[in-house]
Design brief:
binds ligand 2P0; two-stranded antiparallel ribbon; Ribosomal Protein S5, domain 2; 12-stranded mixed β-sheet; 2 domains
């Protein structure tokens, strides 16, 4: 019986967003980004070698379609080259949250896959090397490798070896929460990679967006170190709105925000008027996310749950980085 690896990685939410690449093939970002690794949103992936050279990819109980399987097989080629091992791999992967609805499933998915594949293929890698490999699968996956509060460096090198994420502070550094307001569970209309490229090529606000992101990333790191929720929250809102502003200024425009998403942004402003430190963010999808400290979370969650258009609320805490280990039983 082939040995099975079980890998687990959490999703992450960017407070300072990654939105634009300096290299499309290597997923090299045009600017740094800053994130929080989030529990309970995770991907669990089991992997073992097959007795032939074909890969077999399962999404839960369903065999993946050829487009998805090809993306995974192409990605595994990196591990085959590094290890010299060319056997096929059987993979079964499961998210505990909706896929492709702006909840960063590719981040936890590729982080778990990278971590599991490194273990299966017997590669002994540093966390920075691990993060850079996860990045090749999906940019934001670089951050899901790491513990707690995370910065992903832009890097300067053409080969991307200096573009990896690292923890700024561990998960227990500061008890902040992120409440994800679920407005829809269906797949989104356009993918974030496509939206990013179109924004880079067509938005007149792309260069200013990238310039401000450099400054905001450095300030967000300081705010996290100082546990300054007001400073971090203001940067977080600015980054999300500036990213959406840049993409909305393409022709034709890219608009992920729905009415409910924007209404939740105004809810956070109202909460702040009431003295509660709640701050809005949103990724390439319609789900609003609200950042606050643990002391305020019960109030913020209640207000979000009763808000019109919010179907559900996922209450997230700061999580540790990705793990992988061999398990005894058959996958
Ligand atoms: C982020 N997003 O920083 C930003 C904010 C979406 C909006 O990273 O092309 O799936 O695979 O590198 O990582 C989502 O983009 O894109 C993302 P690729 P990815 O979280």
């Amino acid at each position: 019986m082939e040995k099975t690896v079980e890998a687990r990685a959490h999703a992450n939410v960017a407070l300072v967003k990654y939105f634009g690449k300096r290299d499309l093939a290597l997923n090299l970002p045009a600017a740094p980004s800053v994130s929080i690794t989030l529990s309970p949103l995770n991907t669990v992936t089991r992997m073992s070698f097959t007795d032939n050279d074909s890969d077999e990819i399962w999404l839960g109980d369903t065999l993946a379609d050829s487009k998805f399987s090809t993306r995974i097989s192409n990605y595994l080629y990196i591990f085959r080259e590094l290890s010299g091992e060319h056997r096929g791999v059987r993979i079964s992967t499961q998210n505990n949250f909706p896929t492709a609805a702006g909840l960063a499933s590719s981040a936890s998915g590729f982080a778990a896959l990278a971590k599991g594949a490194a273990r299966l293929f017997g590669l002994n890698l540093s966390e920075a090397e691990m993060s850079a490999l996860a990045r090749r699968g999906s940019g934001s996956a670089a951050r899901s490798i790491c513990d707690g509060f995370v910065v992903w460096h832009r890097g300067e090198k053409a080969d991307g070896s200096d573009s990896f994420a690292q923890s700024i502070a561990p998960a227990n550094h500061w008890d902040v929460r992120v409440l994800v307001g679920v407005t829809t569970t269906g797949p989104k209309d356009i993918g974030s990679t496509f939206a990013m490229e179109r924004t880079r090529l067509l938005s007149p606000y792309y260069q200013p967006w990238i310039q401000t992101t450099h400054v905001n990333a450095a300030e967000a790191v300081d705010a996290i170190e100082q546990k300054d929720i007001e400073k971090l929250g203001e940067i977080t809102e600015y980054s999300a709105l500036a990213m959406h502003g840049a993409m909305m200024a393409t022709e034709p425009p890219i608009v992920f925000l729905k009415g409910t998403t924007l209404d939740v942004f105004h809810l956070t402003r109202q909460l702040r008027k009431e003295g509660i430190g709640a701050y809005f963010t949103c990724d390439a999808g319609p789900q609003p996310k609200v950042l606050c400290e643990a002391k305020d979370v019960m109030t913020v969650e209640q207000r979000l749950r009763e808000f019109p258009g919010i179907l559900d609320v996922i209450h997230c805490s700061v999580a540790t980085g990705a793990t992988a280990h061999f398990i005894d039983h058959e996958s």
